[in-house]
């Protein structure tokens, strides 16, 4: 198949390859069904897979997960591993919202127990968790010293300050803290933007969602994850807020200016990068870690506030609620990891831009509870249909540097979504679908309506059928708060 | 309109136009404002001056737009219009001097339509097409 000037070869029903051409250091590989590939023909996403293949030191393939769509620099859904010693790190492979991610917590409640109080629960959550653009004030404004503590210690700060417990850290990727994060690599401007944003949800596609477990695909793994049918769970989707945006902005500017120094000639300036071992590369890596830590702390605080809202709404104790973090995963990050490449264990920098880590069983980074089954992979869909919990596999370790998809991926631009939504009573439509929503404005609801997104089950099925991450459970939303 | 909104699946993009590069910069700022804000009452109670230097017009434009973003979210300064904007070549670099007029952010009269996370370098290229300067700008939202 030829799309514009890009040749695509079908490897199997769920995998496509873009052969290596001039300038590419590796071929491109896209996990997608025929349906998903056909949705990519009119935008720039495939070209972006080709562009990423130009990165110095990239290993094996420039990869794209099935939720691939047009981004900037990397496509959304892009994964690239670069050699730790000879390769580069690119802020464009992480994005502005550094460590945007999802956490999912389970409760002892079932659907029937909360259905009559769902409206009150959504109202309480909306009141207790600051949402929207520039939202602030979830906790007292941080001092400069406190924010530096968060940048260094991540979610540990939240736990030490009463927002959760030590067990939460065990079930957070990297235990909620990337080591060697030096706040000196973060600009004063970025710190200023973060001072009053800890514990805030933000806007756009960020959300807090109340779901119930509608279907279980793998009973054995579901039990280990603590899931049962009709169980109430919550998902929190947010990232590093203005602090992360500013760090990305600061370092992109620096690295675009350093392009000549490093002798790179990349096809898109948004792919600006630095050798990982250079001063610039090390500074960005450190600043990115600080933002990642800020984001984990953010989700930890929000989860704690949500737990308190549940307790208040249902007038139950912490023990009765049994609010447990199932897992917290990042889907915008660059991580230094070891993977087997051409038969040898190699240290690489894995960029996941709209892609989730999906480590298999027997991986020493996993909590003991999941060691024999693999890492939970959290894949939110749109707010009207469903989301999925999958589990990482050894095939992911072999083929995708332990990565899987991260969500549905947009189908309509925001403009198109607003046009379609015109004249419709969106809140009523969602109510009819069994979803109670509270948001700062109608515009966000219109832009985020289910019709604006691909069907996440198409995306999850590609990963399942490829053997990259296997389905464990399907969740159905019943309550949402958004910015 | 000095700019046109164009469809982008995940983000928002504009094409900004101008009879000169200075004009194009002003158009891009108005495009940023159109995407970011709705203002019910406009008064120009505040003004801010910015000075940037770079070897590339594209980098200067991104720096200016990112500055408007920073001013809104960190300093609560709502950009409304450009009072003065000059581009001067100094040796091998270009200097951008801007005086922007605006007002203090007040949620009762300002509605933030979209939170722009960042102004990207993706596909930005200032070109002269039949005497009109233009460039595409993709905003991450």
Automatic annotation (TrEMBL), chain A:
List positions binding Mn(2+) 2. 237, 331
Q: Which cofactor does it need?
A: Mn(2+)
What note does UniProt attach to the cofactor annotation? Binds 2 manganese ions per subunit.
Q: Where is the active site?
A: 406
User: Where along the chain is GMP bound?
Assistant: 205-209, 331-332, 380-383, 387, 406-409, 482
Q: Which Gene3D superfamilies match?
A: tRNA-splicing ligase RtcB
Which molecular-function annotations from GO does this UniProt entry contain? Answer: GTP binding; metal ion binding; RNA ligase (ATP) activity; RNA ligase (GTP) activity
The alphabetized UniProt keywords are:
GTP-binding, Ligase, Manganese, Metal-binding, Nucleotide-binding, RNA repair
Q: Which domain of life is it from?
A: Bacteria
> Which EC class heads this enzyme's classification?
ligase
As its record notes, the protein acts as a catalyst of: a 3'-end 2',3'-cyclophospho-ribonucleotide-RNA + a 5'-end dephospho-ribonucleoside-RNA + GTP + H2O = a ribonucleotidyl-ribonucleotide-RNA + GMP + diphosphate + H(+); a 3'-end 3'-phospho-ribonucleotide-RNA + a 5'-end dephospho-ribonucleoside-RNA + GTP = a ribonucleotidyl-ribonucleotide-RNA + GMP + diphosphate
Q: What's a BP term from Gene Ontology annotated to this protein?
A: RNA repair
Sites where the protein binds Mn(2+) 1: 97, 206
Q: What is its EC number?
A: 6.5.1.-
What is its quaternary makeup?
Answer: Monomer.
What protein family does this chain belong to? Belongs to the RtcB family.
The protein depicted here goes by the name: tRNA-splicing ligase RtcB
Give the gene name: rtcB
TrEMBL record, chain B:
Q: Which PANTHER family match?
A: ARCHEASE (PTHR12682), PROTEIN ARCHEASE (PTHR12682:SF11)
Claim: Protein biosynthesis is one of the keywords in the record:
no
InterPro entries per record: Archease (IPR002804), Archease_dom (IPR023572), Archease_dom_sf (IPR036820)
What high-level taxonomic lineage is stated for the organism? Bacteria, Pseudomonadati, Ignavibacteriota, Ignavibacteria, Ignavibacteriales
Q: Whose protein is this, by species?
A: Stygiobacter electus
Q: Which family does it belong to?
A: Belongs to the archease family.
Q: Where is the Archease domain?
A: 3-141
Q: What would be an example GO MF term here?
A: metal ion binding
Q: Which GO terms describe its biological process?
A: tRNA processing
Report what the protein is called: Archease
Pfam families xrefs: Archease (PF01951)
């Amino acid at each position: 198949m030829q799309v514009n000037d890009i040749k695509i070869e079908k490897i199997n029903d769920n995998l496509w390859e873009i052969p290596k051409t001039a300038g590419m250091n590796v071929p491109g590989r896209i996990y997608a069904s025929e349906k998903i590939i056909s949705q990519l023909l009119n935008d720039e996403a495939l070209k972006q897979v080709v562009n990423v293949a130009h990165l110095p030191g990239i290993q094996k393939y420039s990869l794209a997960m099935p939720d691939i769509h047009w981004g900037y620099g990397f496509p959304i859904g892009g994964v690239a591993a670069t050699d730790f010693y000879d390769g580069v790190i690119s802020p464009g492979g992480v994005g502005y919202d550094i460590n945007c991610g999802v956490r999912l917590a389970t409760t002892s409640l079932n659907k029937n127990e909360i259905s009559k109080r769902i409206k009150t629960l959504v109202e309480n959550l909306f009141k207790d968790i600051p949402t929207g653009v520039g939202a602030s004030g979830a906790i007292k404004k941080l001092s400069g010293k406190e924010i530096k503590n968060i940048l260094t210690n991540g979610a540990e700060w939240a736990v030490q300050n009463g927002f959760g417990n030590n067990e939460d850290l065990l079930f957070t990727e990297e235990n909620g803290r990337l080591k060697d994060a030096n706040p000196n690599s973060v600009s004063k401007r970025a710190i200023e933007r973060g001072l009053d944003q800890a514990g805030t949800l933000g806007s756009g596609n960020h959300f807090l969602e109340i779901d119930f477990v509608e279907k279980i695909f793998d009973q054995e793994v579901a039990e280990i994850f603590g899931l049962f049918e009709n169980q109430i769970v919550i998902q929190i989707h947010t990232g590093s807020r203005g602090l992360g945006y500013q760090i990305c902005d600061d370092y992109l500017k620096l690295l675009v200016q350093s392009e000549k120094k490093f002798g790179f000639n990349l096809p898109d300036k948004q792919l600006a990068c630095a050798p990982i071992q250079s001063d610039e590369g090390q500074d960005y890596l450190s600043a990115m870690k600080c933002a990642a830590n800020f984001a984990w702390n953010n989700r930890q605080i929000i989860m704690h506030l949500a737990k308190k809202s549940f307790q208040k709404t249902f007038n139950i104790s912490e023990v009765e609620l049994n609010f447990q973090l199932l897992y917290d995963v990042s889907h915008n990050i660059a991580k230094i990891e070891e993977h087997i490449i051409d038969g040898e264990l190699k240290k690489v920098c894995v960029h996941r831009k709209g892609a989730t880590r999906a480590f298999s069983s027997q991986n020493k980074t996993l909590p003991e509870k999941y060691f024999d089954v693999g890492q939970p992979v959290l894949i939110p869909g749109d707010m009207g249909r469903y989301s999925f919990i999958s589990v990482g596999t050894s095939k992911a370790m072999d083929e995708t540097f332990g990565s899987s998809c991260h969500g549905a991926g947009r189908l309509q631009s925001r403009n198109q979504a607003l046009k379609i939504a015109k004249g419709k009573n969106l809140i009523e439509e969602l109510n009819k679908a069994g979803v109670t929503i509270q948001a700062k404005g109608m515009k966000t609801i219109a832009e985020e309506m289910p019709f604006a997104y691909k069907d996440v089950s198409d995306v999850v099925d590609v990963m399942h059928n490829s053997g990259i991450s296997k389905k464990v459970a399907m969740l159905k939303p019943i309550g949402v708060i958004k910015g | 309109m000095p700019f046109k909104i164009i469809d982008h699946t995940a983000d928002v993009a504009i094409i900004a136009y101008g009879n000169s590069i200075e004009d194009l910069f002003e158009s891009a700022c108005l495009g940023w404002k159109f995407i970011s804000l709705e203002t019910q009452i406009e008064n120009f109670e505040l003004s801010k001056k910015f000075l940037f230097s770079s070897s590339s017009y594209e980098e200067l434009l991104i720096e200016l737009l990112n500055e408007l973003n920073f001013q809104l979210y960190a300093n609560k300064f709502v950009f409304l219009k450009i009072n003065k904007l000059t581009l001067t070549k100094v040796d091998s670099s270009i200097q951008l001097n801007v005086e922007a007029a605006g007002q203090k952010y007040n949620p009762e009269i300002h509605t933030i339509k979209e939170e722009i996370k960042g102004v990207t370098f993706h596909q930005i290229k200032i070109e002269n097409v039949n005497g009109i300067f233009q460039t595409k700008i993709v905003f991450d939202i």
